[in-house]
Amino acid sequence: MSPMLHSILAFVQTWWVELLCAVLIVLVVPLAASYIVLVERKVMADMQARLGPMRVGPHGLLQPIADALKLLIKEDLIPDNADQFIFWLAPVLSMTAVLTSMGAVAIGPWFQVARDINIGLLFVVGVGALGPFGIVLGGWASNNHYSIIGALRSTAQLISYETAAGFALVSGFLLAGTLNVRAIVETQRTDQAWYVFLAPVGFFTYLIASIAETNRVPFDLPEAESELVAGYMTEYSGFRWSLYFLAEYANMIVVASVGTTLFLGGWLRPFSNVRWLAGLDAAPTLLLAAGGAYCVFRAGKQPARVQSMFMWAVAFGCFVVAVIFTLALPFSHLPLERMHDGLYGAFWFLLKVSAYIYIFMWLRFTLPRFRFDQLMRLGWHILIPLALVNVADVGIALALSSEFGINRWVAMVITTAATLGAAMLLLHWNDKYSAAASAALLADSSIAEDTHAG
Amino acid sequence: MLDSVIFYFFAGIAVVSAALMVTRRNAIHSAIFLITTLLATAGIFLQLRAEFLFISQIILYVGGIMVLFIFVIMLVRLDVPLPQIRSRTQKWIALLVALAVGLEAGVVIWLARKVPGQGLLIPNAAPADKLQPNTEELAKALFGTYLLPFEIASVLLLVAMVGAVVMAKKRTDA
User: Fold this and answer.
1) Do residues A382 and A333 both lie within one domain?
2) Is residue A386 part of a domain?
3) Which residues, including other chains, have CB under 8 Å from residue A437's CB and lie 6 or more apart?
4) Domain C-terminal end among B115, B132, B149
5) What is the Cα–Cα distance from B78 to B62, expressed in whole angstroms?
6) For residue A111, which phi and psi values (nearest 5 degrees)?
7) Subunit contact B35:A133, Cβ cutoff 8 A
8) Three-state SS for A111?
9) A58, A340, B50, B65: least buried by Cβ within 10 Å?
């Protein structure tokens, strides 16, 4: 056997768990992303008092698969004057960046591809930051005005809000004292507090910035359909278009995972230190059993036999997973506790990520879109200064508690109040500034005409 | 074995795409090959277990500076070929610089061969099974041992930034 093949075999033998996790991520994340689309349509329908997709499968459960099939067999167009190579490369780049950055995300204590990397969360954020290249290059390669305006908007927006998001993350990193994903979650266990409570300003800054980074309403100017057709995706169709689309939704999963890991306690159960709340461990079983029971209840009411069969199948799946959770429960103090921790950790992590993504959807169907100058002003005049002040204040609070022995919670409350005071001042100045700015804007007749036209 | 394979893989990508970056006519293509070079260099950092350098290379150069480069390139009209600047002395200056760089590289390689046990062409990597406290070590060095140079450098950068803003502002007012 050649030494090359031998070393590859040794590599596989050492790292087979990680390789398996990687394959699972590549398989499951796009599927999850397409189901998030279905959930989003269902949530939208619910908020608008309609039913949403109901035709494909019971309650539209197979809709994502039908959509994917449709997109796969659609004609794949490349405009004549497009830059062929970059047009091909751009969506692939977006998707690759997102999937790679998922590699360092810890879904539960054991399910993680890159386990002991020192930079941990920074890897997720940094590699995820390569996604904008796909957007910019795709917009440029399309050779279309709408595309390039969308791409320019998205670049400007991403650069602005990435700074704010970065500083918001720094405030969390300061509290954790490490970048390693698992160490961050473990320090939240030993600190007995999720960092959203210790650094609330940091969390909300990150929440807003992460919505902007995923190009979602109210920050979806790169693809504002009333102005730019579809922004950078205008010339894309078929499979390439679906790659962009999947990358966008998968990116939601990534930013939600980062927010969950750093601020919402990762895979920790709520009140993981409180012994008498251990009953919360029954939550996954109960939730899944309730879901299964609902499916059984609905199965009889399906119009077609195939549909009720499918409903039974979903119910069966729910019950099986519920049974697995129940069986893993007694292992919490046995040698098999890894299985228990992994299962329950994954459940809580995914629940928190879902809640985070639900906030995205909720905002999407509640808020109107920003104007571009408003977006830039919010980013540069409010969020970035606020995040900077917050980093300084979190640092001061940590110094107060470690050097002067002041209770950490007291220190945090004081500095958060200081940060909020700074936020008030920023808003006040910004109001004054924006009044002057819009007066200047109106004085310029050409721009005034433009705004009337728009 | 695997280490050197990974090293030559990334090094090859870096060198080839650097050459392509210089020779492309289309500025966006050049930018893409520059990104590839930077990513390959980041890969070499990672192969050396310098994780923090790897990610700062990606965040700063690829995620930050190159996005701005492409942003600027897209705003410039590319269908109008730029007038080529040619001067007689340019050729000679280029030759001189190339010779100097080549000489420097040669000297470094020659010196490294004289040190026993210190491979230069294939860098010695830290053991893979150990978690390298990269970030902590860098922070200690920057904020402890080299605090003053670090602060001076950051003030210098701040001055440069303020200067750039002031210069840009003056131009719009005029």
Assistant:
1) no
2) yes
3) A373
4) B132
5) 22
6) -95, 95
7) yes
8) strand
9) B65
Mutate to test the interface with B, among A86, A119, A162 (most CBs of B within 10 A): A119
Check whether residue B32 and residue B106 sit in a common domain. yes
Q: Does A156 touch chain B (CB under 8 A)?
A: yes
What confidence tens digit (pLDDT) does each residue in A382-438 have?
888 888 888 888 888 888 888 887 777 777 888 888 888 888 888 888 777 767 766
Nearest to A118 among B70, B75, B134 (CB): B134
Shortest alpha-carbon distance between residue B134 and chain A (Å)? 7
B107 & B174 share domain: no
Please give the Cα distance from A340 to A328 (Å, whole number): 5
B81 and B155 part of one domain:
no
Q: Are B90 and B120 in a shared domain?
A: yes
The string over B28-60, giving b where at least 16 C-beta atoms fall within 10 Å of a residue's C-beta and e elsewhere, is: bbbbbbbbbbbbbbbbbbbbbbbbbbbbbbbbe
Q: What is this structure's pTM?
A: 0.82
In a domain, A328, yes or no: yes
Give the range of the structural domain holding residue A331, as residue numbers without chain letter. 277-363
Could you tell me which residues of chain B have a Cβ less than 8 Å from any Cβ in chain A?
Answer: 1-2, 5, 26, 28-29, 32, 35, 51-52, 54-55, 58-59, 62-64, 66-68, 70-71, 74-75, 131-135
Rounded Cα distance between A406 and B143, Å, is 25
In whole angstroms, what is the distance from residue A131 CA to residue A159 CA? 12
Task: Work out the angle between the directed axes of helices A445-453 and A408-443 (0-180°, nearest 10).
Answer: 110
- If asked whether residues B119 and B98 sit together in one domain, one would say yes
The answer to whether residues B46 and B112 belong to one domain is yes
What domain range includes position B152? 133-174
